[in-house]
Amino acid sequence: MASAASEDCVRLGLALAERLCQERKMRLTPLRRQVLICLLEAQGAVKAYDLIEMLHKTRKRFTPPSTIYRTLDFLVDCGLVHKIASINSYLPCTCQHHENSLLLFVCSRCKKAQEMDDPKLYVALKQRFEELGLALENGSIEMHGLCHACAKTEA
Amino acid sequence: MASAASEDCVRLGLALAERLCQERKMRLTPLRRQVLICLLEAQGAVKAYDLIEMLHKTRKRFTPPSTIYRTLDFLVDCGLVHKIASINSYLPCTCQHHENSLLLFVCSRCKKAQEMDDPKLYVALKQRFEELGLALENGSIEMHGLCHACAKTEA
DNA sequence: GACAAAAATGCAACGATATATCATTTTCCC
DNA sequence: GGGAAAATGATATATCGTTGCATTTTTGTC
Question: pTM value?
């Protein structure tokens, strides 16, 4: 089910989460860890209720929505996961290096999401907004359009 | 209730809508017109179910969700209104001039939204995405952060 | 104007997404 | 081990959006 690349991704993501939680004295509980693994394995953005289903297969107890949303909030607050509001989905983020320069791209057709790191562009955006008295938040720029694959097959 | 500036806004918005619909042989029905007016008068982003309530005051019949969403879809397709997915809201757009260079800013605190036109920045973004095989869509860049007013009162 | 076709709207039910509240369990720390 | 704090579970409910089909309105044609 999980490819080698995916396994790598999971391992890296978990390692980062563990380091981060230790540093900040937060708890990477079994549930949080399990949710994070689900997200990392999915290789793409996942919806909250899909996570509930995924967890249902591996856990004895049913995990209610409130719990999932709390868990996701935790992971988002940690910066380990991005919420993509426009598709009600969550995307794990392994590469912590772009804390201040993240752009999210969502394909309007296939709904796949990907991150893009471009500090220069991000700074340009940020400055432009500051001129207007607006303070950009990190990791909250969502763009829509066609991805490479979908653009190809478009009529 | 409606200030002079707001009245101007409504007048301009309606004029644009009428011209656009005539050009494209589409129909600006009473309902569509009424929804557009509500949005223009609101001076900010409005939610679908709030529109239902607003319409309930001026119309005899209750307007069901399906109808509202269809109407909003129409207005969005026309380019007269932007959907802001991250706050489930709709924002009218009077200034048609920035068809290809629109950025939307949403305050994470007060949820107020505003448009920003910056062709240069937009082109830079677009080019950067094209390098990655991604084709940006118009009017679909949403950013979050603190607006001027909220940044001031922030602890 | 009468009529059929097409477009728009109304209606009811439902599905998907998210939150509130309180009970219970687990963990932490002394 | 015991009490406080944090996390999770359970239930109900609020919010957001869609589907399918009936009805009304508009359009185009004769």
Answer: 0.89
Model pLDDT, residue B2: 54
Beta strand spans in chain B (E): 46-47, 81-84, 89-92, 102-107, 113-117, 135-136, 142-146
Strand partners, B90: B46, B83
pLDDT at B93: 85
Give the nearest chain A residue to B151 (CA atoms).
A135
A71 CB less than 7 Å from any atom of strand D: yes
pLDDT at A139 over 80: no
Whether residue B86 contacts residue B144, with contact meaning beta carbons closer than 8 Å, is answered with: yes
Residues of A with CB under 8 A from a CB of B: 85-87, 105, 107-108, 116, 118, 121, 124-125, 128-129, 132-137, 140-148, 151
Write down how long chain A is: 155
Task: Give chain C positions with protein CB within 7 A.
Answer: 7-13, 16-21, 27-28
In order of start, what are the domains of chain B with their CATH numbers? 4-92 (1.10.10.10), 102-154 (3.30.1490.190)
What's the pLDDT at A99?
A: 60
Strand partners, A103: A116
The Cα A114–Cα A44 span in angstroms is: 8
The pair phi, psi for residue B84, each rounded to 5°, is -105, 100
Q: What is the dihedral of CA A114, A115, A121, A123, to 10 degrees?
A: 150
Give the rounded distance of the alpha carbon of B83 from its chain centre: 6
Mean pLDDT on A85-100? 79
Q: Which residue positions in chain B have pLDDT lower than 70?
A: 1-3, 5, 95-100, 154-155
Question: What spatial distance separates the first Cα and last Cα of chain A, rounded to whole Å?
Answer: 33
CA distance A66 to B138: 35
Strand B102-107 to strand B89-92: parallel, antiparallel, or no bridges (unpaired)? unpaired
CA to C1' distance (Å), from A17 to C24: 28
